[in-house]
Specification:
With 504 residues, the chain is an alpha+beta fold. The chain has seven helices and 24 strands. The longest helix has 58 residues.
Length: 504
């Protein structure tokens, strides 16, 4: 059976979508209304705050009292100042040697004090080498020389004989030539035959050949003699060398000094030119220190030369300090680029040394710097910004640019920018500025005057400052750019005018 359209069940199914749509619209409208209310509340609150801020009375800065800052100061006093440069140096041996034996051989004796750190006097025998082989070599050299001497004597005797025979041969040649001349005359007369003349010519030729042979023999003997003499010279040098080598078997100390190291032991074979003993002269010690380029240039241009300048050094051993003196005697030949400066050497005076120095000791060195004339020595605490100091004038700070020449310890040397008698502040302030009011505890208060800062109760009023600005004809910026003294000058002019503005 078919259901009617007005059936309640069928009607309920069709009306459900309509109810859901109406509910979503209501929710959206409600959210919009709430957002509008929130914005309205925020806007009203902002407007109310702005009106409250605009209606609040304007606050004025509380005037800061002109408080005087207590500081310390020193009075400038100029004079000649020679600061000291503090450096570090190393003690070196100015005279050291590596002893090498001239000959090889077995060590048969050594000095009883030949050990590192011991002192040996000049001329003492450090060690001795077995002389047997050298004695044999000397004997052989002398025997060879004697043999050569005998050969030379034999050659000289033979040469004398050859020269005598040459004279005899020449006499015989002269006789043969005379006989030949007579034979030729007799032949012309028919007394002698041609055969007899030819026999005499043959005799002359034989005599001439004999003379030539003797001359050649003499030349040969002279050459042999010169050769033997050369051999004798060489053998004489060999004998001298052998004698010297034999004398070098005893190795002597070249000077008095301290032994650094020794590799010599009895029975050990030492080779020629091997380092056997190293020693240094303990009476010739130098301290080597390095001056920077700036320090060297500054001291080198001083009126007093660097060479010959006395320096002091301190050697710290344990908890004790030992003082020494030295004199600069030479400057390094090259720039010590690795150390960044110039090496300087000073000879240490060890005559009255409390403790014997040793090479390699690390010492502190004090070198007198150059002399500064008309300079001022002040505590380093007075220096601000490398070239700035503050002078106390009439109870207030005045900035000064100074010329800093050098530093020494806690002091600074100034050569320009300050005048004698001025007071320089030595207290470090974190907020220092030009014109800051300061006071020196225990000092007398400043008095008033034309050039003095007015004391409390006599300071210029605002009307007087305005009149001073008007008198100067400057703008506010130009007025603030003036120094304090320039502004005071205008204020004094206003004070000197009749009907000037009164003080506040």
């Amino acid at each position: 059976m078919l259901k009617s359209v007005k059936d309640p069940q069928v009607a309920g199914d069709d009306a459900a979508p309509s109810r859901r749509t109406d509910g979503g619209v209501v929710t959206a409208v409600r959210a919009i209304v709430q957002a509008a209310l929130m914005l309205a509340v925020l806007g009203g609150s902002y407007l109310a705050m702005e009106r409250l801020i605009a209606a609040a009375p304007e606050r004025t800065a509380r005037p800061q009292p002109d408080v005087s800052v207590p500081v310390e100061a020193v009075i400038v006093s100029s004079g000649d100042e020679r600061p000291n440069v503090s450096l570090f140096g190393e003690v070196t041996a100015a005279r050291a040697v590596d002893v090498r034996p001239p000959v090889s051989g077995e060590v048969v004796a050594i000095h009883p004090d030949l050990s590192a750190g011991r002192r040996i006097e000049a001329g003492d025998t450090l060690f001795e080498i077995d002389p047997f082989d050298l004695e044999v070599a000397l004997a052989e050299a002398q025997a060879n020389l004697a043999q050569t001497e005998a050969t030379i004597a034999e050659n000289e005797a033979r040469l004398v004989s050859e020269r005598a025979q040459l004279e005899s041969a020449r006499d015989q040649l002269d006789l043969a030539r005379s006989d030949l001349a007579r034979a030729e005359q007799l032949r012309g007369n028919g007394t002698l035959t041609a055969k007899q003349v030819e026999d005499r010519e043959l005799i002359v030729s034989q005599r001439e050949q004999a003379v030539s042979q003797r001359i050649n023999n003499i030349a040969i003997e002279e050459a042999r003699l010169e050769q033997q003499r050369a051999i004798r010279t060489r053998l004489q040098l060999g004998v001298r060398r052998a004698e010297r080598d034999l004398g070098d078997t005893a190795v002597l100390a070249p000077f008095s000094g301290v032994v650094r190291s020794s590799t010599v032991e009895t029975g050990r074979i030492v080779a020629a030119n091997d380092v056997a003993v190293a020693m240094y002269d303990d009476s010739a010690l130098d301290v080597r220190f390095t001056l920077t380029d700036a320090q060297y240039g500054r001291i080198a241009t001083d009126a007093d030369p660097l060479i010959g300048r006395d320096v002091t050094l301190v050697w710290t051993v344990g908890n004790l300090d030992y003082d020494y003196t030295a004199t600069v005697n030479r400057i390094g030949a090259d720039i010590a680029s690795a150390r960044g400066g110039v090496d300087v050497f000073a000879r240490i005076d060890v005559a009255d040394a409390p403790v014997q120095l040793r090479p390699g000791a690390f010492v502190s060195v004090t070198v007198p710097d150059r002399l500064y004339e008309d300079a001022v020595r002040l505590p380093e605490t007075a220096l601000y910004d490398a070239q700035t100091m503050y002078v106390i004038a009439n109870g207030r700070l005045e900035r000064r640019t100074v010329d800093v020449a050098a530093f020494e310890g806690a002091d600074v040397i100034v050569t320009g920018g300050l005048e004698a008698g001025e007071q320089v502040m030595t207290t470090r302030l974190s907020n220092v500025e030009d014109g800051l009011k300061v006071s020196i505890p225990g000092a007398e208060p400043p008095t008033t005057g034309d050039d003095a800062t007015p004391v409390a109760g006599n300071r210029p009023s605002e009307e007087m400052i305005t009149a001073a600005k008007r008198l100067s004809g400057l703008t506010d910026a130009q007025w603030e750019a003036l120094s304090r003294d320039e502004r005071r000058a205008y204020v004094r002019q206003v004070r000197g005018q009749p009907n000037a503005a009164g003080d506040g």
